[in-house]
Amino acid sequence: MSIEQEPDRQIPPHLEALATSGVPFPAIDESTKDYGPLADTPDASTEPTQSQLDLMAEQGSAERVTEGQSLSPVQASLRRLGRDKRAMVCFAIILFIVVFSYVFPYFYLHIGPTISGGLGGTPVGPEIYHQYTHQELLLTDTPPSAAYPLGSDLIGRDILARMMAGVNISIQIALFVEVLDIFLGVTIGTLAGFFGGWVDTGLARFTDIMFAFPGLLLVIMAAATLGPVFTLRFGLIGRLLVVAIMIGITIWPVMARFVRGQALQIKEQQYMEAARTVGGTNRQLILRHIVPNLFSIVIAAATLNMVGTITAEAVISLLGLGVQPPGSSLGLMINDGLVNLTTYPSEVIFPSLVLVLLVVCFAFFGDGVRDAFDPRTKD
Fold this sequence. Notes:
4 strands, mainly alpha, two-stranded antiparallel ribbon
């Protein structure tokens, strides 16, 4: 029975509004001629409004960005690296040591009391005795003090100033070596992987020869024979130049192997075939498609190679074939402090701790970079 057939029946206002809204009318209890409960009536408060739908869409978009679905591969890799707490702590330590070693010396030369230096007791200010090459022969092997925060070495040089100079040398050599390593490794590895055939065979055999030759022995031989010649030509930086070049020559085969394997995979991709179809030359294919896609593996390998570079430079200087006095190096400081190891162990402990801290932090940070930039790695 419809409502129109019984006009004398009074309809409650809420049911009248429900009937005109288009929602199905509730059932009528025929036994009592009364309206049943509105059990099937939808609750309008549970229906999302348009503003709520827009907010949900924005939140979903933000979640997709958070998961890296809307990020470029590099941005997604950097996001994964930022979530690696161990790698980020190590990066913060490296950054602090490097920035401190480069920036603090400018302020350090103006911090400290005036001391009685020289054989005649002439007053000397911090701008003199805080230079890493300055010697105070009457203040040798001194403990930490206001003038020398970490003490002085066996010929009266500031240990803290020499440590900061040594870190600068290690970082500069490591950066120079990595530039040479990336240039040689990317060039040879890309050519071998892209062209294949006799080019790949010839470069692969040359790389095997470099792998077979003991790298540290080559660096020692070059430093001992060419070091004096380069020193006469370029001064104190000459021996460092020899060491850096030889370290770079000995480590590039590892980079070349990584790049060659990646280049072999990239050249078989469909977009490479499409680029060849539209008339792309070999030079264009290498520079526009292969080299840009080597970014992740090159960055990861270069970061890990920093560990070997810093260690090799310290070992060469420890053997007396690297940095020469009055220059400074962590390895050279350890070598100089070995004479007083039993009486003044701090002269060896301080540079050794900094060296170990740099090596360990670069190793952990390199592992984090490798995991973050590996396309096969997922969260």
